[in-house]
Amino acid sequence: MNGTDLVQLLLGGLAMGAIYALVALGLYVTHLATHRVNFGQGDFMMAAAYLTIATRAAKLSLPLAIVCVVLCLALMGWLLDRVAIRPLDRKRRSTVGSYAWILTTAGVALIVQNVIELFYGKSSQYSPPLFSGQRDNVVRFFGVGVFVEELLVIVVAVTVVSAFYLFMFRSRWGKCIQTVAFNPEVASLLGIHTQRVKVSVFVIAAVLAAFAGVLIGPLITVNPQMGLIFTIKALIVAAIGGLSNPIGIFAGGLLFGVAEAGSNYFDSSFGDLYPLLAALVLIAIKPAGLFSERAIDVR
Please, what is the end-to-end C-alpha distance for the chain in angstroms? Predict the structure, then answer.
């Protein structure tokens, strides 16, 4: 492997790792406030990718397309809470009711997948490039060719993660989320509308999936079945980084993405298998994650 291949491999791995991290952060914020996650988070990202294709085919400008995708996914997040999460609160004391959200969120994921298949079929689709005129636009830095899309996807993903971090730890609503995560009863006594907070975390998770879906299109071909594997990888990334540490989750996503890219470079047939096995071994050795000790667990 020469220097050019190494740089391209790292950039490709970092770009995919940033996507995994965005999906995993959606799992983090819902688990933080409600102790539940959306098992269709990857399918929400897939839906956002197809919505991006549809809005660009309708000749909408990129900013307007992103706004449309984000609004649609925010609505999906709100509906998920109203349809698949909130009705289960009445059954919280029963054994089945405590874990029924796994089935309901997975069921919503299947509905989303089938709706997309109804319009696009099961074949893969190509999304137009976001930031350049052609799909494989290469620029050179010091003689090393890098793909513009991969470079800018990393920049945008880091910007979104930074905004998410500032929102969670600097904004008033972010502090409300942490208070609800610590103790919902105390939060209610402090005047915090806990139900609105719980709804908001699913909306936030859906918005993160929207950005991941917008960014993933230029990197890979999208298909209606891709959601499950992204959900699984996001869960693994969250476990690697520590489910209580958003910065750790982002770092875990980048590490997993680079490991996956390197594994596929040396063995394209089973390249996805080795990082998953290594992650499972790591989780077995360190169940709390690599960066869990650096985070303040508010619960």
Answer: 46
